[in-house]
């Protein structure tokens, strides 16, 4: 029947992935760290779905919550409240530093960024938005306006007042110290010199990911976030941190911003919060929330404050806490990075291994005249044949970067299996 599947897919599905193609496998089911294909093959999922399934697939506690909640209270009029929603808001606030205590529960990452940007504009009375030139914040209007890593061409004018600043990339530094290292302070000064020259003096917000994921797993240098916040505040704007992929223990901390001790004005959470279910949150201070409310803040959507996914969010927090998955992500991350660095000693095509906790980037470089993106595509294909799902991001000016983000519940045996398959795939592709 798979023949019909692919011809039906070709006939009836909109292709939404740009120049890429659908993964050529029919996925029938998923459990823990693995997916099973229609022909019975098992695939190790090294991207936790779309970087979301931090508890693995179909975690028993999540399954039980969905079954119970769907049978008792699924969805409501958007102006009605229920216990899972208020519980999740309180528990998120308890997991965060002061003054982040006011929560709006939504559905997707783009939507949470849309709401955060809308709130920042209303509260500051300004409209300009700064983000990184390698950013990804989502596909809706304001989120896409602040997204530069791809997808800008051909959709008409972006909103006026969006500005890109260079991404501080330590592996491929543009501003360098005398030793050739990234000079992020000079880069940041330059960024704001350019911004000031173009700005009409109306900065609403700067929105950034603490580790750019779609931008190639680029961790901000320690100190950068604080310096960025100070520059944004000096111009009257708010700092929005998009922790779609980094929030909820993945980097070894509950939130990636904890490493820097920088509390954002607005925090957005999504992918990892629902661990694969569509749940997102905007979190801010009582002061910002009050001003927004006084000015009539409106973000009334069909699925705002939905009890079903809020209950899942509570279960995700339960599992993260009881299983100490922050510590586990840090330990497994060190283990996996060590294994990947060992591969790098034997495979010159691996240019860099980076990241924090279980959000790891492995950047390929040109190998004996063969371009990195071609090698990346071939390694991805071979991994799939061998039973490992990998995702490679290909951006201009970079080699292919594998984004490796296994579930935080993975075992070391599962990570070893991934390392083994990757080793074999790279060996075969680079000696072919
Ligand atoms: C950092 C970041 N923000 C926002 C988004 C958008 O989330 P969604 O696709 O759920 O709208 C993504 C998605 O990849 C992301 O990586």
CATH topology of the largest domain: Aspartate Aminotransferase, domain 2
* Content-based structural category: alpha/beta
Q: Quick one: CATH class of the largest domain?
A: Alpha Beta
Number of strands: 17
Percentage of residues in strands = 15-25%
Total number of helices: 14
Strand order of the largest sheet: 4-12-11-10-7-5-6
Counted up, domains total: 2
Question: What is this entry, summarized?
Answer:
With 432 residues, the chain is an alpha/beta fold.
Structural commentary:
With 432 residues, the protein is α/β, with parallel strands linked by helices. It has two domains: 25-58 and 324-431, Aspartate Aminotransferase, domain 1, CATH 3.90.1150.10; 63-322, 3-Layer(aba) Sandwich (Aspartate Aminotransferase, domain 2), CATH 3.40.640.10. 40% of the residues lie in helices and 17% in strands. It is built from 14 helices and 17 strands. The protein has helices spanning 2-12, 48-51, 60-72, 83-95, 109-124, 141-145, 184-198, 224-234, 271-274, 286-294, 307-322, 325-346, 372-386, 412-431; strands at residues 27-31, 34-37, 42-45, 102-106, 128-132, 162-165, 203-208, 211-212, 218-219, 238-242, 266-269, 280-284, 350-356, 359-364, 388-389, 392-393, 401-404. The chain has a seven-stranded mixed β-sheet with strand order 4-12-11-10-7-5-6, with helices on both faces. Helix 4 (83-95) packs parallel to helix 11 (307-322). The longest helix is centred in the C-terminal third of the chain and has 22 residues, at 325-346. The two termini are 34 Å apart. The model has no long low-confidence stretch (mean pLDDT 97). Bound molecules: pyridoxal-5'-phosphate. Pyridoxal-5'-phosphate (PLP) binds at residues 108-110, 113, 136-138, 209, 213-214, 242, 244-245, 270.
């Amino acid at each position: 029947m798979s023949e019909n599947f692919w011809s039906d897919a070709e006939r009836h599905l909109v292709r939404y992935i740009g120049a890429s193609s659908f993964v050529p496998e029919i996925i029938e089911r998923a459990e823990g760290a693995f997916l099973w294909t229609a022909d019975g093959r098992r695939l190790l999922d090294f991207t936790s779905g779309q970087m979301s399934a931090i508890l693995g697939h179909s975690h028993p506690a999540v399954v039980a919550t969905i079954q119970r909640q769907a049978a008792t209270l699924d969805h409501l009029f958007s102006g009605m409240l229920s216990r899972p929603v208020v519980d999740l808001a309180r528990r998120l606030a308890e997991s965060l530093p002061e003054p982040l205590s006011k929560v709006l529960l939504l559905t997707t990452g783009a939507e949470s960024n849309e709401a955060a940007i809308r709130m920042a504009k209303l509260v500051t009375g300004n409209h300009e938005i700064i983000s990184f030139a390698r950013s990804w914040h989502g596909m809706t209007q304001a989120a896409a306006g602040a997204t530069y890593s791809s997808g800008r061409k051909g959709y008409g004018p972006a909103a006026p007042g969006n500005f890109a600043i260079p991404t501080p990339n330590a592996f491929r530094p543009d501003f360098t110290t005398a030793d050739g290292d990234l000079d992020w302070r000079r880069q940041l000064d330059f960024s704001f010199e350019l911004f000031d020259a173009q700005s009409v003096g109306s900065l609403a917000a700067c929105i950034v990911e603490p580790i750019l994921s779609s931008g190639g797993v680029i961790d901000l240098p320690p100190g950068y976030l604080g310096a960025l916040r100070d520059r944004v505040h000096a111009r009257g704007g708010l700092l929005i941190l998009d922790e779609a992929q980094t929030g909820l223990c993945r980097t070894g901390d509950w939130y990636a911003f904890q490493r820097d001790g920088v509390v954002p004005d607005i925090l957005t959470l999504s992918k990892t919060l629902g661990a694969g279910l569509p749940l997102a949150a905007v979190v801010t201070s009582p002061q910002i929330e009050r001003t927004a409310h006084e000015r009539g803040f409106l973000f009334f959507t069909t699925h705002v404050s939905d009890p079903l996914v809020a209950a899942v969010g509570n279960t995700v927090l339960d599992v993260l806490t009881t299983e100490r998955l922050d510590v586990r992500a840090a330990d497994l991350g060190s283990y996996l990075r060590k294994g990947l660095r060992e591969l790098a000693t034997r495979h010159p095509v691996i240019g860099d291994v980076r990241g924090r906790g279980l959000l790891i980037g492995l950047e390929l470089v040109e190998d004996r005249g063969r371009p990195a993106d071609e090698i990346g595509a071939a390694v991805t294909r071979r991994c799939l044949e061998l039973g490992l799902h990998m995702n490679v991001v290909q951006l201009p000016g970079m080699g292919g970067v594998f984004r490796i983000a296994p579930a935080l519940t993975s075992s070391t045996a599962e990570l070893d299996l991934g390392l083994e398959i990757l080793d074999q795939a790279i060996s075969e592709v680079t000696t072919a």
